[in-house]
Fold these 2 entries.
Entry 1:
Amino acid sequence: MTKRTSVLGSVVGALFALATVMSAVTCGPVQAKEASITVAQSIDVSSLNPYGDINTATFAMWKHIMEPLVLFDFNKRTYYGVLAESWTMKDTEYVFKIRKGIRFHDGNELTAHDVKFSLDQALNSIQAVILKSAIKSVDVVDDHTVRVNTKTPFANLLSRLKHIVIVSQKAHEKWGADIKDHPIGTGPFKFVTWKKGNYFVVAKAGSYWGEPAKLDKIIWRPIQEDASRVTALESGEVDVITAVPTHEVARLEKKPNLRVEKTRALRQLFIALSPRFEPFKNPQVRKAMNHAIDVDYIIKNVLDGMAYRAVGPTGPQHIGYNANIKPYSYDPKKARELLAQAGYPNGFDLKFNSSSGRYVKDREVAQVIADQLGRVGIRTQIVFGEHGTYWSDITKGKVNMYLSGGFNEEDPELFLSLYYETGITPRIGLSDPKFDELLRKERMTMNPAESDKLLQEISAYAYNEMVPTISLWHPVDLYGVNNRLVWKPNPNEEMYFHRAYVK
Amino acid sequence: MLRRRLIGILPVFLGVSLIVFVLLRLAPGDPLSLLVPDGSSQAEVERIRHEWGLDRSVPVQYWEFLKKATLGDFGESYKYREPVSKLVLERLPATVELALLSLLISTMVAIPIGIVSAVRRNSALWDHGTMSLALLGTSMPPFWLGIMLIIVLGGQLNLLPVGGRLTYGIELTHITGLYLLDSILTLNWEAFSDACRHIIMPAFTMGVVMAAMAARITRSSMLDVLGQDYITTARIKGLPERTVILKHCLRNSLCTIVTILGIQLGTLLAGSIIIETVFSWPGVGSLLIQAIGYRDYRVVQFTVLLFAFIYILVNLLLDFVYTWIDPRVRI
Amino acid sequence: MDIDQPIRHVDAVAFQFSRIKKRIFRKKYLKIYVGGSIFLALLFASLLAPIIAPHDPAKLDLTLKLLRAFESEDFILGTDNLGRDLLSRIIYGSRISLLIGVVSVLFAATLGALLGAISAYFGKYVDELIMKVVEIFLAFPFLLLSIVIMAFLGPGLTNIIIALVLSRWVQFCRLVRGEVLSIKGRDHVVAAKALGAKDMYIIVRHILPYTMPSLIVMCTFEVALVIIYESSLSFLGLGVPASVPTWGTMLAEGRTYMMAAPWLSVFPGLAIFVTVLGINLLGDGLRDVLDPRMRGR
């Protein structure tokens, strides 16, 4: 008996000893003087090929290494040149002047040939099929001038070009197919290593044409579980985390070494109401549903106040935001009246598809919305699909009412086209000639002020007359940040650390 | 007989590949909708569908898949644009390392507990106590236990990292891809301790779930053996109880224990999907669940076949172990 | 080796005691009593949920959200993130969780037992064929199988049961096949055959009943396992839709609140634990009584 206990005892003792030794080693090697930060987000980089898979998080990481011709400035609300010094637009011709004296990380100089090469690569990739419908060809005018020819006058080209990073043609020729292991760009950071599923690391580039980066190293780590990400931030294992759960904000803000950065997002949550469903053919019904949902109540009680009510398809950070649209009031009585007028005094039944875990508290939101609709007689059965099914069903037009999150582009044209324009996609399945005409006109309008005006008109028309959706809110993106890092996030979910620094 | 066994594997592979192939294609969700960016024209989508070979009928696709698979070509991942074999095999060592360590933990805990509780049958502490613990282990969903550990050990006590496999900045020469083994082989203690700190929580979580099951099976198999006549004979002969239990009993319940290992392998491979997701462990399981989400058919197909291959291979090996433990067993 | 003596002594004393106790308490059945009463209590709770539950489990009231456990008399176990009474949700949750556990195991056991018996009884090609299918299913990680099936069928109560049945039947098939192999040579089966009974009749009347003891034991363990698997599927976002609360879904949904509102995941977890404990005790007890090799020990 005693012997057995002692064996057990020694095993336990050994385990404790091991644990003590291990805890004695601090979290990772601390390199003196090197300013490095670790960033945790829910997903990993999907590829080292900048024209491979498209997702916001990957783009954001890419943009530290490689740069596009232009980017959008959310404060000044205009596009500004990055690699392009200036540009002119005339009908179907965009002419870009490329900055002189910029060198890639491998030492080669950036020329117009690299730009043409990159755009051609992008045009042949999956990622940029959206460009294909717009761009006819790319020509090199001289060493530092590139001309992009569009098929029709296309005023929104810049918003699409901002996603196309410029790579080095010489490096591509040197490495051939292996180029995907040697990403070389002009950015303030250069690629160091990528251990799939573990970490992705960039380091400050030796020389940069603009203001040099202040951080020496950025390490991205994928941590999928919300609770784990929060824990990693609290324990100091990481410095920045994305998507802090709203109910953790208050607790994290009490910690002296942490803060929560809040940014009003471009993304808009909305519920699509497809006229494929018989009752939704009647705009009265769609208006009634807008009156039946108490958006402010949900923001306050489900999202802990971490959202701004959306009125119309665009928000204040978008180009062409219309601040004069009046929101639908929460008025269940009016909703019932409208339903009765439309011939549905007893409401109707339908399925309501919702994402699950994709947007902040989407499961909770869907349940509260279903509850509120139930009070005016619209009985919904919530379907929480796994993402693959949910999203495919939407893009194929198989669902009539769904909660979705739109996307985070400052130019609403693409969104309006995909969801509202006749015959583009079956996502809502609208057909409104007046809307189509307005959007077509907007695309042709090169003058930003005029295009702004048109977009405002479109927004008001869509919200008040078409009513294809229930606009819900723009969430507040929540980033948990260690106070040693000085950094402000962008409203488009792309984290950019060029000017960030460690105290 | 061995040859027959090996030939018998073939239909199993065919069956597994057919099921996964057909189920994936019947499942709602279209890789094109999920992987081609928003705003692509219909013509573009159809061009890519053709490029990926998804415009053909399912039987034709399956035939093409089989033809290529026999040559070891499983195609390129739709999402990652890399050969799936490379993509998956790169991550395999992480899964294998985690599985082996969990298996080690669970066996080291479960078998002694199982034996002791069988020998001390009905004793409050040794039998009922440990078996209640085992029950607690079986009734905890692994993801829940994992998150609890992360919050307590990773957060409150700040002892262990919440996820990942190795801290960035620690150099490690890759020999086998199993970090613990590699660091021992290269006498790299810094890497060893770091790898240990990363693996201990996931391995423990997975180990607990398996240990609970294994302890109960060990207990009942020991009870079974304890009741047999030769044990009574040995006792009557006056052999010390220790000898009776360790030599006569344990040896004979080893067969059952080996069977447990075989069964647990299935649990391990399936469990890896959950544990790897919870602990951000860069293995095959977390890749698989993502691939299902994106309908990256080729990755799912290859991974499932790989899992089936491992399962079959290990069970074949275990059959040999049987013959070695118990000469009466023939393959 | 001096450790032997005390054990034997203790054993001897315990033996005397247990003989006395056995007469009074029938200790042999203790596990069955305890496990069975837990299981019955759960069954009653689920059947009488509308009477027992203090609140409507689906009633949202965001003004009452996240009330702490044991602080309000009206909501003993507190409320969830949408202000629903946790106790009522757990009581109603027992319906779906038990339904999933019991129904899927019953179907899996029936399917597995039938195929296992057929496989063993007919032998030869039938056996080879069925065993190949079993091997295919075994080589397919079961959780993965459920995931793919769930993705294919879509979320829903029936679908989750189908997915669980399809991934669990093989265990029963293997068990029953092994048993039947030894039963089919017994005299009464041979006699029935000689009297010209039909094969299926023999299987159903003369063979399957003899596999019942081990089958019942395995069923009880499987019910517990299935409840846990359902929770894992919920974790992966493939569970039963939220309007129907299952313990697994509650646990999976409560996980982001583990710091802010631990009771959201602790109580459903506890419910699962008690259920699994009850069912396992019942299984253990049944095994001790039903399994002939265990009898008398």
Entry 2:
Amino acid sequence: MSTHLENDLENVKLKMFEMADMAIDAIRMSVESLKKSDVATAEQVIQNDTYLDKMEIMIDDACIKLLVTRQPAAGDLRLVLAVLKINTDLERIGDLATNIAKETIRCDGRTPLKPLVDIPRMGGICIEMLKDALQAISTRDVARAQRVIETDTEIDYLNMQIYRELFSYMAENPHTITQAMGLIMVSKALERIGDHATNIAERAIYYIQGEDVRHQL
Amino acid sequence: MEEKIKVNALTFYYNTKAAICGITLPMYKNTVTALIGPSGCGKSTFIRCINRMNDIIPNTSVDGEILIDGVNIYEPRYDVTGLRRRVGMVFQKSNPFPKSIFENIAYGLKINGVRNRYDIEGIVENSLKSTALWDEVKDRLNESALGLSGGQQQRLCIARTIAVQPEIILMDEPASALDPISTMKIEELIQDLKHNYTIVIVTHNMQQAARVSDYTAFFYMGELIELNKTETIFTKPEKKMTENYITGKFG
């Protein structure tokens, strides 16, 4: 028989996973909208972000209530603390996806600078990182969380590669500056999403092992 | 939400000294209301007014009223025995009768006129199941209740209370004499029972109030300082005095 504490912990965990699914959808849809110049999808991302904001407040409230009324200890306490922080990461991911979607809307009607290859690749890696980080929490798999942290360098590398490519576009033809700057902003947003996925993986390790692995590189 | 108990301007005197002064508070059906406050603040006196347990103390008197389902239990011709059937009570120290486990529960039923053996056996089993005691005692129902552990005895007393199907259960520090595991079992039980009963609990343990109750009333020197949702009391209490008490600055 599960206790009331266990039920409440399971509920906040489920809400967090639900929010994570929404954040993953936001990344996927925003990058797709940019790739296909699909303004309707971009607008959908912006609209969905309000749900993510509401979820953030709801999960925070549920965690505070759980801390006050159930007084979790040890692993249970670490889970609530991890959820509280992951919640903020997920909300920020939603905001960053919104920024990407806004770039799609800004580019509406213009001929794309170039076919997008690396940006969708970055988006794909970010989504995998997030899924792995959450899976690590669900299955208490430290090795998996560790791999997410390591993958972040791949994202950073791609980001720099995109910067270099776009700088060369701008140097060759100053008319591309507006669009290239837009894509640099998108690349930066994806790089930040990678950082948030890394944060989530670090919090997963904290939850599972009680060990704080932040700022160790 | 339906008000099961409504206390209006209740003052209770020991001789001429008021132990609780002008308390007004509602208690809602199917909720747990916790009463907290430092020793001597009137919590226990208050809870004992709800089933008129204080009537038996000499030189005491009551002003104000307590309405249960809209009827004042301090009306002169109110049926006090019937009241105590509707309002069960669990005390700090478990007090099983020196009888068998089965008889502890069956006793209340018998004096309430239940004669059919099958009815009694069914109710005994259900009461023990709803207090999560059945699996622990089902093979020794005829052994003395005094052989049970403290936590089991307390759950037996709760089972005995609910066997006669009260509407309200009063608990005066029901877990203060128990170890942490037994305490947890009692707390889990309280939260399961609230679906069928209205529960009022006195506790010295603020964390326990936070864990088990939906509403918390903070008493100080016989007065009700604040009644609020438990979550609110422990995150943003309205009164400074409540905050000082729950953060351990006095009391």
